[in-house]
Amino acid sequence: MIEIRFSVFYEHQLPRPWDEGAEQRLYRDALDQIEIADRIGLDYVWEVEHHFLEEYSHSSAPEVFLAAASQRTERIRLGHGIVQLPPQVNHPARIAERIATLDLVSGGRVDFGTGEASSSAELGGFGVRRTDKRAQWQDAIDVITRMFVEEPFAGWDSRHFRMPPRNVIPKTVQKPHPPLWVACSRRETIEFAARNGIGALAFSFIEPEDAGRWVDEYYRLLASEECVPAGFAVNPNVAVVLPMMLHEDEETAIDRGIDGAHFFGFALAHYYGTTPHDPGRTDVWKHFEERRAARGFSREQIIANAESLNVNIGSLRGAVGTPGQVADLIRRYEAVGVDQISFVLQAGPNRHEHICEALELFGRDVLPQFTEGREEREAAKAERLAPAIEAALARRAPARKLASGYRIDEDAEVARARRGSRAGRPLRDEVRTAGQRRVRQGLYRMVGGRSDAQLERRFGPGAQRVFFAGMARAYDADAAGGFEGELEFRLSRSGVVTPWTIEVRNGRARARAGGARNPVLTVSTGTADFLRTLSGHTNPAVLLMDGRLNLSGDVELAPRLSEMFGGPSPY
User: Fold this and answer.
1) Burial (0-12, 13-18, 19+ Cβ within 10 Å), 484
2) pTM of the full predicted structure?
């Protein structure tokens, strides 16, 4: 068994309706809560960076908030995560400067969480191409960590970013730089974190036993020759995120926390799915109240039963319960090797006073059960991983030295930057992305409000052929994580099953009528349910629980299908 750490996680959620001063109260209350978290002994506070995601996240300048938190706390670590790395969102030098400044004012307490962003609102708002964002992350993390350690930074010239040599100051307190993390939402990004030698912030609400498989694969890859650190230090950690509300009476805990947990999941799906959003007009909370059960967030399925907690029991629950229930759930995560659990208490309509009570109760009745012997276990883990970390760092390209004689030349540097800005992707890529977005929005409108019979009539064999051909054309090899093989879709319509196959080979996808010879994954469902799932009108988890959707083969591939064939995915 390894040590386990605990943290609180903030999106700064603010469901409508908003009254005067609501955002100011939201920030003030969060700072008060973090003071309690620091006092009771929690290890981290994580604060996200999001833009334009009304109601779901009013946290667009986390470095300012965390700086305020640093002056009201003494020991809790400040998880700046995730910072969005595409240069159109944040210039790499500005990120390095802000992280170092926060590390200075906090006395060396910063953890640097990173990510690409994936919501259409953010990517479109900053003009980031979805197909470029992973490459931009890899480019930016290399640039930023070099800015931390190179003195001066020796400059950069790549497809995504160009900057002349400069001494990027200030430098961080922690050497060579603060611990690095990356946001993860599925197994492939956990593996990506391991190959880059950085901590995995897993944002999927998964059961402990499923998390254990992710942890095993993470540490296997981290210790293998595939691990080439993205930074100049390795941060071997896997963290999971869970909704939480605590009370000695289970029913009270549910009443106080389940709506917040469900709104968190619903709003996440709203912004990272295909649901249309009109800025300043769409009322996400109203939609939640109207559609929560249909989207897999049924309030009626969460009942007080005094049994051990499951994260998902027909509807998302997380760590909402009594101290005893939550402690048992933590032990299950601890047993499979999870390094950190981050609790979401500030979510949806959850009340400030209830959050404070839950934190105090956690510090009194739960936390003491997991602190004894922690230092010894951490030391043993560090000793066990030391050879693998040393070998991984030896594979990383070293910091560079700038050749003597370089001098700042404004005219020459500006001219080079202008030439670089004209080197971009072809216009046809922008047209392709815009076309995919129009198709998704059109599908959402076409499906909404129609009966099974109406959808089955409109989606006959001819329409299905066009649809699957379109899926194949929209295939994104960057989102496939190296997958190759056959995907079989078996659609039932008026009692007749029609099979379709999409075959992925050599970075391309092809669709054909008929069953697959050797399918990696088979998806069987009704035609109407298939359309509602793809358009975002139905949560596939609901269909699975009702027996209306059946998966066979590599079921962990299923959550990736949307992003692989032109749709968005969280983080």
Assistant:
1) exposed
2) 0.83
